[in-house]
Structure formats: structure tokens, C-alpha cells
């Protein structure tokens, strides 16, 4: 039998306070003296009472749940982000309703789930979504923050690393270190992250009238490996490869090793993300660091502002990163 | 303004059916003709109606939410498992309330969260918990499945790889391939996974009157790296190292490389888990494969059985794995 039939009135009787005092103790931010609070919590503990968040949610119209949709939890970059969102939201009193979208598109099913559970807000990372999906949330007054996804004219808030800037700086770094034949390994087609990194990279190269070779690596280790093999077996192989994320760059480094091509002596490789593995000694990958902690904090702050005040305008926040120079790039002199 | 004030009665009027028919359409498994179902869904769609899972939950005493607590989402093994649980539970109509426990202990706060949201069941992976925590869930009639954690005399269900067997088989494999000076790099102290793998390993070695050297690597890449450095710099270094998980074994492989000690020529290394990276060419790690898909399916099946029938006895399911031989072990002849 569930202990759930112990209710606030039992706790009130047991601790000798009114039922509304018990309610206040379990309502975040409500006014109640420390002494009373402690007495009520002790009684609740002894009786095995816990407030029913769900019943409370029906009254307050707040569930304190945030829906997080994520496409590729196997990518260490996103796995780490999920952990940090969970922790950051918890410190603000929110809980995570998690959806792993096996397809890269956010589908009707995931949307319905978040709507049915009446989440207070939604964070979407590493997954595509159409603006009609965003509209469905907004019509239901559920604010949405896109994390590391950018949609032009999006009616919701966006927190994103400045991918164009990152791509440009990486291109300039290759040029400043004397590279002349450059390649770009793109991630998943149609993702704004890959398209923007490519765009910035092309802009930098255009200043020297250069065009990068182009390959696709699907944002996976094996995709990056295969793309690098194709590039490195060309008659005139590139002397520098920019991979649109780190996990593909690790694949590219291993492909070069397998082919007996030395990094950085024969070819330089730069990634994007700065996942933990990139610092591992056999890789020591030069890469673009996304200021993840800062980005997550910004996303949480914006979402909570919009939850607390539905008149809040959506914000688009582009956050800069920085180049982390390790040992996968060599200064070339001609 | 929220569209939420569109309710089942509006949908009933719009589609010309009774309100109870609308309810049946949105109740999984309820009896309703395909033609009616389609008519109601179309009306719901046009009006922007979605059933309120939370209100429904208060009536049915089912929320269709499963709480998942996970300690180390950064470990690729667990990140992958989370994605698979999310997918597997969704196909059964359940949703994931996710908690990342930054400490390795499941704390009161996480427990309260799951209780407050009235989850139908709880899955705990990669996190320690005391039996008093389990008791709190069971008292509230919320079934718990421990995934890859084993507690003696635990009153809840357990799905676990047979870690003792795995450790024994790895020990025997080292002995059968002529290794004589063996070491064990343990994971986090007090985790049943590490203790059981060590126990099995010791049992195998005892048959030849051998004792392993012992180091600790905290289940992280850097911990495994540092532990391997300590072992490989000993005057009489081991010729075989069993690491209690793969991510430590990858660290150990890199440490050997850094020290100029060849794997497998000078030292053999075996891991445990078979994460994706272990198959990457520069590692090619021999390891113990946990049959993850099968374990996840078993955990979901057991949990749902217990949700549907609270008289169900807890089950302890030990699942065997198998050795995946790659290139990190060499046959030694004396």
C-alpha cells in the first residue's frame, strides 16, 4: 500500500500548525519562519510525507519540469552537456524530462510528450526541428531555447557558439601557419553548426583566393576516418584539414596514422568542440573550444526568464570560443 | 494565452462523438474503431488539443514516467545506455525523468524528486545507493531496478553483467596465453562492479598460486593512465594488466605508448565493457563485452512487470558477456 495517502493535513496535525503553513513550507520561496519550517519538515519526514509535485502543478500551472531533447547522446560533447544541464537546472529547482531522438528530426511524438506533461520549458540540442514545431510549443506558452542550433528568423531563443567566427579563425590559423591546400570535413548535412563552420572557413580562405576541398563525415568517428582516407589518398593531398567536430578529427588523426602519414609533419588537423579526448596524449588535437559552461548557464537563465515572464522577448545569444593550440598543426615554410 | 483550455469536450463536439469516446482514443489500449480514432485525432489536431498526462495520472495513479538516476554520463558506456533506455522505454509508452547525480551516492534530494513526481518506477545505473533509499521507494510502492549494480540481500530487482564470471574468464585468458605477472587496475572503490571483477580475477589467479598487483584508476581515462604509469615503472613490471573498465584501459594503452613500452609485445592489456572506442584502430583493445541491449531489455521488462503487478517478486538477473579478442594481448612463451 502506498504511503501516499499521508497528506498535508496529517503533517499539520502532527506538527501543530495549520495546513496552509505546511503548504508554504513546501512552496519554494514562500514566507515561513526557520523554526516552523524545521518543525514541519521533521514531522513530514517521520510520517513519510512528500508533497505531490503533480497535484501542485495542476494548481500552480507549473510543473518545474524542463523537457530536453537531444539527438546524439553517444557524442561525448552532448553527453557532457546533458549532465551539466541536469545539474544546473536542479540548482534552480527544475527537473529534466529527457528525450533521446534517435532520428535527427524532432518528431510530433516528442513534441506531444512535452506538451502532455505540461513542461515549463523546452531545451533542444543537437537535433533539427522545423519552425512549425517551435510554433506548437510557443502557442502553448511553453518557451523554447535552441542550444547550439541556429535557425534564421526563429521565434524562440537561441544560445549558440559563434560557429562562423570559429570557422573563420581556424581558416586564418591555417593560412598564418603557411598551409596552402586545405580541406573541410563537414558534419551532418543541413545542420547549422556544420554549415556555419564551413561558411566561416570559406570566408577566411577566400581572402587568399583559396577554396577548400570538401568531404562529409556525418559527425561520427568512422565518418571522419573514411573522409580523411579519401582526402589523404588524393594525388595532391591537402596539407591541412578542418573537421567540423572533434570526434571526426580523432577519426582523421587515426586514418592518417593508419596510412603512414604523419601529423603534423605531413598534414595538420584542427577540430571543433574541445571534448576531453582531444587532450589525450595520442591525439593532442588543436581545436576550437566552445565555452560550454557559460553557454549552458546562459541557456538556463534565458529559459527561466521566459518561464517567469511570458512577455519576455526571445533572445539570440552568440557566444565566442577560442583556439586551443595543441600538437596537430605545424608551421609550414615554403 | 495557453491553448490548454481546449478540452476533450470541445474535441467531442467538433468531431460529433461522445466525450468518453475522445477519452478512449487517448487511452493506450482502449477499444475504439479505426475510423472513429482517425476522426477524433484529426479534430484534436485542428483544435490544438492534447490530453493532459498529469491530470490523467492523478486519476489513473499512473504517470508513465520512469526515473533514471545516473552517475557518470561522461563515461561513453553510460551515455549510450541512457540513449537506449530512453528509446526502449518510449516504445513501451514510458517517459524518462532524468537525474544526473554528480556525487556517486544517490542522495535524499534525488529520491524526493522521483517521489514527488510520482514516477511509476525507478532505474538506477552507475550510482551507489544505500538499502534505506531502496526501502523508501518500495514503501511507496515504486519498483526499483538496479542496472549494473549489485547489492547483497537487496529487496529490489537487479540486472547485472556477471562481473565475477567476466573477471575469472579474463584471468584465465591471461594464464592460458602464458602471462605470469599480472596486475589489476580497480575502478571506484566500493562499487560492486569493480569489486566483483577483481574477485573473479583473483579466483582465476589463485588456481596458479598467483596474486595480482593492485592499483586504483577511479574508472576514468586519466586515472587508468596514472595507474598504468605506476605499474609500468616498477622494477619488475607486469606482463599483463586487467583494467576494470575500457576507459581506464585506453588510458593504460596510451601510458604504455608514452613510456615506449609496446602493447602487446611488452605488456598485454584487457578492458571491460566494449565501448565503441575500444575498436578504434589505435587502441584495438581486447575486452569483455557486456550484452548491453539484452541487459536493457531485461531491465525494462522486469520494471514494467513490477509496475503492472505489485505482487511480483524482485528478480536478480545475472547476464553473461563474452571476451572480444582484438590486438592488445599476446601469446607469451617462456
From TrEMBL, chains A, B:
PROSITE patterns linked to this entry: HTH_LACI_2
GO MF annotations, alphabetized: DNA binding
CDD domains according to UniProt: HTH_LacI, PBP1_LacI-like
Coiled-coil blocks: none
UniProt superkingdom: Bacteria
SUPFAM superfamilies hit by this protein: lambda repressor-like DNA-binding domains, Periplasmic binding protein-like I
Swiss-Prot/TrEMBL keywords: DNA-binding, Transcription, Transcription regulation
Span of domain HTH lacI-type: 6-60
Pfam families in alphabetical order: LacI (PF00356), Peripla_BP_3 (PF13377)
UniProt entry tagged with the keyword DNA-binding: yes
PANTHER family: HTH-TYPE TRANSCRIPTIONAL REGULATOR GALS, LACI-RELATED TRANSCRIPTIONAL REPRESSOR
Name used for this protein in its record: LacI family DNA-binding transcriptional regulator
